[in-house]
Design brief:
This protein has 238 residues and is an alpha/beta fold. 36% of the residues lie in helices and 24% in strands. The strands form 2 sheets. Strands 2-1-3-4-5-11 form a 6-stranded parallel beta sheet, with helices on both faces. The model has no long low-confidence stretch (mean pLDDT 93).
């Protein structure tokens, strides 16, 4: 495949290394210094775009890919307030979109564990649930997209929790402690605490390679498809 990398920071470079190892070609590398090169003429030369930029620019990048008829894999988080508009545009343009808050296979298995555990814990009101997420100091959004996905799963299953917050802890609120330190790739901890014991599940990324591999697998999966896809579609195809 010929890949356009939209966002060429640390994650973009990890994706590039894995894509080349899997015999793909990188024909376009877009960062903040050459954003003018993100035009339909160049995009049409690619088979797929992989987008890891910023919450402020991602929606405009997706729209440009759709306008060029280019399938796009989106790994940027913090943009989901535009999701309805983007899905409508995808349908209007007969486009292809693969989106995820986290492309790691391990994290997506963790999502399934989290959902199942939350269903079990709904009946045990003595256990208060909270979350902690730890990321590197360069991460722009708080909480992480992965943390929001985990929180939404918990809210769907546990009736006594009505919303989540990174600033307030109330009985009906799922508190998310967000930590930014060093170069931590990503750690997420779900904690159920009672007066007598504490139950925890966690996922810790050791590096960015798992996220990058998932993004390349998503690009391979998207080839020849139209519509909107997620990691559930990718994992169920294996």
């Amino acid at each position: 495949m010929k890949i356009a990398l939209v966002g060429y920071g640390k994650m973009g470079k990890e994706i590039e290394a894995i894509a080349l190892h899997r015999h793909h070609e990188i024909i376009l590398r877009i960062n903040s210094k050459n954003s003018a090169e993100l035009d339909p003429r160049l995009l049409k030369q690619a088979d797929v775009a992989i987008e890891f930029s910023t919450p402020q620019t991602v929606s405009a990048h997706i729209e440009k890919c759709f306008s060029a008829g280019l399938p796009v894999v989106v790994g940027t988080t913090g943009w989901y307030e535009d999701f309805k508009k983007i899905t409508e545009l995808c349908e209007e343009k007969n486009g292809s979109l693969f989106h995820a808050t986290n492309f790691s296979v391990g994290v997506n298995l963790f999502f399934k564990v989290n959902s199942y555990l939350a269903q079990l814990m709904d009946r045990y009101a003595e256990y208060d649930v909270s979350m902690e997420e730890i990321h590197h100091i360069h991460k722009l959004d708080k909480p992480s997209g992965t943390a929001i996905s985990l929180a939404n799963q918990i809210l769907e299953a546990i009736e006594r929790k009505k919303n989540w917050s990174i600033s307030e802890a109330h009985p009906d609120t799922l508190f998310i402690k967000d930590v930014r330190e060093g170069e931590v790739p990503g750690t997420h901890i779900i904690r159920y605490a009672s007066p007598v014991d504490t139950l925890e599940i966690s996922h810790t990324a050791h590096n960015r390679k798992g996220f990058a591999l998932g993004a390349v697998l998503a690009a391979e999966f998207l080839a020849g498809k139209k519509g909107i896809y997620t990691m559930d579609d990718l994992l169920s195809s294996k």
